[in-house]
Amino acid sequence: VYKRQVVNQATQMQSTCTLGWLVLSPRGEVQALTAGHCRTGPEIDVEDQVSGVKKVAGTWVRSEYSKDGRVMEGSDIATVALASGLGHSVRTLDGLAPAGVTTAQELRDHPPARICKRGGQTGLSCGPMVGISEDRVAFRAAVDHGDSGGPVWAVSNTGVVTALAAVSYTH
What we know:
By secondary structure, the protein is mainly beta. A hairpin with a 6-residue loop joins β1 (2-7) and β2 (14-19). The protein is 4% helix and 43% strand. 32% of the residues are buried. The protein has one helix spanning 104-109; strands at 2-7, 14-19, 22-24, 30-34, 43-47, 54-65, 76-82, 114-119, 123-127, 129-132, 137-139, 151-155, 161-166. Strands 3-4-7-6-5 form a five-stranded antiparallel sheet, with no helix packed on it. A four-stranded antiparallel sheet has the order 9-8-12-13, with no helix packed on it. A two-stranded antiparallel ribbon has the order 1-2.
């Protein structure tokens, strides 16, 4: 999980978001999921926190963002092709490696013991599920600007961890 200030070099538009789950593209390329509203331009430029040097961390592959004002509806997801040499792992910052992916129907059929997220701003936070739609899940957790895009996972009553979503909304 990376918190990075994303800067569009052409427009100098900035946003701070969190890269979430790593996925493989149909061609086997490593990509990262994040929130679609984080997209500011064609590339993601990051600044090294120690040296201050800016470099290209990746390019946007696809992003969907629809802001219709309804919390449990709409799209807010993006994929980012990562630049080589960044280093990456399928484990979360907390060392968790998901056993799979949980669907909305599986959440309805077998509600998890808790849902957790990791955000670049607020860190790790877990809480109970409070709502679900076809493409969104709501749960109680500490979330703030900068957490968008971070990984969200379900923890079953037996402790099994499954990938669930990307942080998209604070309320």
